[in-house]
C-alpha cells in the first residue's frame, strides 16, 4: 500500500477517483484528515516504481485538502459576520426606539407645530434634482441660509423644537449624534402618526383609550418597515440651491403638479400629501380638487379617511413619505453602531 497524509480538522470527504488509485479517499483519524490512496491486492505485484505517487498526484491531493480547509474556515467567518450584523441591527433598533419616543413626547407637547414639522420635512426633501442628483432630505434646511428663504417662512419654531429634541437624543446615543437629515424625516413620521391617532380618537368620540385601541387594531403601524430601515442619512454642510421649492400657500395646482412631477411623483402622491402642504388639510384638498387629474385621488382619500381603518389613505401616505425621505440619499446601514466591549473572563470575580 502506498500512502501519505495531510493533517486537518475537517471531517471525512471522498476524493475524486483516480485511474491509478481506484479506492482513493480522505479518511479521518483522531479528528484529522488523512489523504490516503489504497491499491487492490491484485496490484501487489506492481513494481515499487509503479507504486510510488508521482508529483502530480501529490499536488492534486494537497490542493484538495487546502480547498477543504478554506471551505471550513469560511464557515466560521460567516457565523462571525452574521453575529456582528445582528448586534448592529439591535444597536440601531434600540437607538431608533429612543428617537421615536423622544420625538413623540416633544410633538405631543406642541401639537400645533405638526403642520410646520411636516412642511419642514417636505421642503428639505423636495430640493432633490433628478438631473444633477443633488439636494434631497439632507438636513440642509437647518442652515440659516436655507431656513430663512420665503418658502420656509414659519418653520423656525418647528426646527427649534427638533434641535432641542436632538440634544436629548444625542445624550442617549452610543454611536454618535443623530444627523439632522434623519431627525427631520423621523420627526415627520412621528407627526404623521399623531394625525393617524388623532383621527382614531375622533372616531371614538374623543375617548383616547378607545382611540388608541382602534389605531392599534386597525392602524398602519406595520407599514413603516421600509421607512425605518432607511436610517443613516448624511447631512449636507451647504445649503441646497435656491428656487427649487414653491411657496405652497401661493402656488397654483399646476405649479404643485410640476414640482411633484420633477421628482417622479404624480397627482396621486400630490393628493395624499395634502396634509404636508398647509395647516388646513381640507382647504388644501378643496384647491387640489379643482384640477381634474388630482380630484379623483382627493376624493378617494377623503372617503378612506371616513372609514374605520382609513387604510388606503394611511398606506399611500406612508409609501409616498418613504420614497420622499430617501430621494438622492445613500443610506449608511452601519450608522449609529458602536464596538461592543468584550468581557474578560479572567477578571471576573466569582
From TrEMBL:
It comes from Dendrobium thyrsiflorum. The keyword Ligase does not apply. It comes from the Eukaryota. GO terms for molecular function: L-ascorbate peroxidase activity. It catalyses: L-ascorbate + H2O2 = L-dehydroascorbate + 2 H2O. Belongs to the peroxidase family. Keywords: Calcium, Oxidoreductase, Potassium. Pfam families: peroxidase. The keyword Metal-binding does not apply. PANTHER family: THYLAKOID LUMENAL 29 KDA PROTEIN, CHLOROPLASTIC, THYLAKOID LUMENAL 29 KDA PROTEIN, CHLOROPLASTIC-RELATED. This is Plant heme peroxidase family profile domain-containing protein.
Amino acid at each position: 500500500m502506498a500512502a501519505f497524509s495531510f493533517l486537518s480538522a475537517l471531517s471525512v470527504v471522498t476524493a475524486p477517483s483516480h485511474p491509478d488509485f481506484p479506492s482513493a479517499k480522505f479518511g479521518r483519524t483522531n479528528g484529522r484528515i488523512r489523504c490516503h490512496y489504497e491499491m487492490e491486492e491484485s496490484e501487489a505485484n506492481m513494481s515499487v516504481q509503479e507504486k510510488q505517487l508521482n508529483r502530480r498526484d501529490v499536488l492534486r491531493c494537497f490542493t484538495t485538502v487546502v480547498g477543504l480547509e478554506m471551505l471550513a474556515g469560511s464557515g466560521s467567518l460567516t457565523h462571525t459576520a452574521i453575529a456582528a450584523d445582528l448586534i448592529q441591527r439591535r444597536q440601531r433598533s434600540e437607538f431608533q426606539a429612543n428617537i421615536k419616543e423622544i420625538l413623540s413626547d416633544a410633538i405631543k407637547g406642541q401639537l400645533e407645530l405638526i403642520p410646520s414639522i411636516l412642511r419642514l420635512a417636505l421642503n428639505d426633501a423636495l430640493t432633490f434634482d433628478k438631473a444633477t442628483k443633488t439636494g434631497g432630505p439632507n438636513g440642509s434646511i437647518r442652515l440659516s441660509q436655507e431656513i430663512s428663504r420665503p418658502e420656509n417662512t414659519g418653520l423656525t419654531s418647528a426646527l427649534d423644537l427638533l434641535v432641542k429634541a436632538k440634544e436629548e437624543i444625542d445624550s442617549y446615543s452610543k454611536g454618535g449624534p443623530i444627523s439632522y437629515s434623519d431627525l427631520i424625516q423621523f420627526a415627520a413620521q412621528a407627526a404623521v402618526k399623531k394625525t393617524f391617532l388623532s383621527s382614531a380618537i375622533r372616531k371614538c368620540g374623543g375617548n383616547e383609550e378607545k382611540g388608541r385601541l382602534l389605531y392599534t387594531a386597525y392602524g398602519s403601524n406595520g407599514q413603516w418597515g421600509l421607512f425605518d430601515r432607511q436610517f443613516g442619512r448624511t447631512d449636507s454642510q451647504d445649503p441646497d440651491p435656491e428656487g427649487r421649492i414653491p411657496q405652497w400657500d401661493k402656488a397654483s395646482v399646476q405649479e404643485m403638479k410640476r414640482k411633484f412631477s420633477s421628482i417622479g411623483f404624480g397627482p396621486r402622491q400630490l393628493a395624499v400629501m395634502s396634509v404636508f402642504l398647509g395647516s388646513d388639510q381640507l382647504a388644501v384638498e378643496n384647491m387640489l380638487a379643482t384640477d381634474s387629474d388630482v380630484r379623483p385621488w382627493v376624493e378617494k382619500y377623503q372617503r378612506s379617511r371616513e372609514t374605520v381603518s382609513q387604510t388606503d389613505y394611511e398606506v399611500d401616505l406612508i409609501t409616498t413619505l418613504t420614497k420622499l425621505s430617501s430621494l438622492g440619499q445613500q443610506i449608511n446601514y452601519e450608522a449609529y453602531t458602536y464596538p461592543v466591549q468584550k468581557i474578560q473572563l479572567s477578571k471576573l470575580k466569582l
